[in-house]
């Protein structure tokens, strides 16, 4: 595991609440007098709602800008310790806003905690909210030069792609990277729709793309990346580790970036995703280095960070047998 920690990489799919250290959640819940549900039960498949209720409870423990600042700071520290040279944190300000004084204080607190760190903010709306709400957040996101992307999280079955076209047009016109979640539960058509209608440059998950050769070609031709987060799939019953088609995607020319999604709920940071890819899925170290290279190349990292990371990955490769 240590050698994979030393492999330079970018973590591009990490939700703010889901990045919280378990001990921080316990501490914040105690401070605010909240009771916590038992941890997400691993090892068996559960419906989305089992995940969402735990996520909502954890988010409710962030009740001040100080709490939010602490969570972002700790997430950056944890990812740097995992060998990340670049991190993108995804934040939907909607649910924090009532307690923290509006969308702007939420976004500005996160940006403040990221200041001077190798980290970019992705403002995200939700498939479960309206297109108008996403448009409002997209407009807001474009006002901050340090916001690097615009996303859509939650269960994609709850929204309709055309409703979000306007929001993503505003975001991409302003130079933000389009990074919606897609193809988690829905079939490959959804991944294509995110690319064609929302201008997706990366898809959060997008695993169902692999079921359709035309969609795989669509991604490869346009070099649209998939952010694959192995530990998120077995607990939600969408895929086993063994069935993850990462090697096939790489062979087909689709950029793949391994990411950690919600370490708080699924119990694993970004290095653990690489360990699973090596030890359970059977990817070679050369393939893992290719994934790390994709992760930085499809990121919003500044040019010097990208160049240095690619060089450092090449040095890491020189040390493997
Ligand atoms: Zn996610």
How would you briefly describe this protein structure?
The protein has 321 residues and is of the alpha/beta class. It contains 15 helices and 8 strands. The longest helix has 17 residues, at 65-81.
Characteristic terms for this protein:
eight-stranded parallel β-sheet, binds zinc ion, TIM Barrel, 8 strands, alpha/beta
End-to-end C-alpha gap: 16 Å
β-strand number: 8
The biggest beta sheet, please? 8 strands, parallel
CATH class: Alpha Beta
Average residue-wise pLDDT: 95
Number of helices: 15
What's the arrangement of secondary structure elements?
Layout (H helix, E strand, L loop, with lengths): L1 H5 L2 E7 L6 H10 L16 H13 L4 H17 L2 E8 L5 H4 L2 H12 L4 E8 L4 H11 L5 E7 L11 H9 L3 E6 L5 H11 L3 E4 L7 H10 L2 E4 L17 H6 L4 E3 L4 H4 L3 H10 L5 H13 L5 H17 L2
Parallel strand pairs: 1-2, 2-3, 3-4, 4-5, 5-6, 6-7, 7-8
Helix pairs in contact: 4-6, 7-8, 14-15
Bound molecules: zinc ion.
The site of zinc ion has 6 residues, from β1.
Question: Can you characterise this structure?
Answer:
The chain is about 45% helix and about 15% strand. The protein is an alpha/beta fold and about 325 residues long. The protein has a single domain, classed as Metal-dependent hydrolases (TIM Barrel). The longest helix is centred in the first third of the chain and has 17 residues. β6, α10 and β7 form a beta-alpha-beta unit. α7 runs parallel beside α8. The chain has an eight-stranded parallel beta sheet with strand order 1-2-3-4-5-6-7-8, with helices on both faces. It is globular. Zinc ion binds next to β1.
């Amino acid at each position: 595991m240590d050698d994979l920690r030393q492999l330079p990489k970018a973590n591009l799919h990490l939700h703010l609440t889901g990045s919280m250290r378990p001990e921080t959640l316990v501490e914040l819940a105690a401070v605010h007098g909240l009771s916590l549900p038992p941890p997400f039960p691993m090892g068996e498949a559960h419906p989305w709602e089992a995940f969402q209720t735990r996520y909502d409870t954890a988010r409710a423990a962030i009740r001040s800008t100080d709490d939010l600042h602490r969570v972002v700071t700790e997430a950056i520290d944890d990812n740097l310790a995992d060998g990340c040279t670049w991190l993108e944190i995804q934040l939907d300000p909607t649910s924090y806003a009532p307690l923290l004084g509006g969308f702007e204080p939420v976004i500005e607190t996160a940006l403040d905690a990221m200041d001077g760190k190798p980290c970019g903010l992705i403002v995200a709306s939700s498939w479960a909210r309206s297109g108008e709400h996403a448009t409002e957040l997209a407009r807001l996101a474009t006002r901050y030069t340090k916001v690097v992307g615009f996303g859509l999280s939650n269960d994609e079955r709850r929204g309709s792609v055309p409703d979000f076209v306007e929001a993503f047009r505003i975001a991409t016109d302003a130079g933000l990277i389009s990074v919606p979640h897609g193809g988690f539960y829905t079939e490959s058509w959804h991944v294509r729709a995110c690319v064609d209608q929302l201008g997706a440059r990366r898809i959060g998950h997008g695993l169902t793309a692999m079921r359709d050769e035309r969609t795989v070609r669509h991604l490869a031709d346009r070099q649209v990346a998939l952010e694959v987060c192995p530990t998120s799939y077995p607990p939600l019953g969408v895929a086993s580790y063994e069935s993850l088609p990462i090697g096939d995607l790489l062979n087909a020319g689709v950029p793949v970036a391994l990411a950690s999604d919600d370490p708080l709920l699924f119990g694993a940071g970004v290095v653990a995703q690489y360990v699973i890819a090596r030890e359970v899925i059977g990817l070679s170290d050369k393939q893992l280095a290719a994934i790390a290279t994709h992760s930085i190349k499809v990121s919003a990292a500044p040019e010097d960070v990208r160049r240095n990371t690619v060089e450092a990955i090449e040095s890491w490769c020189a040390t493997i047998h």
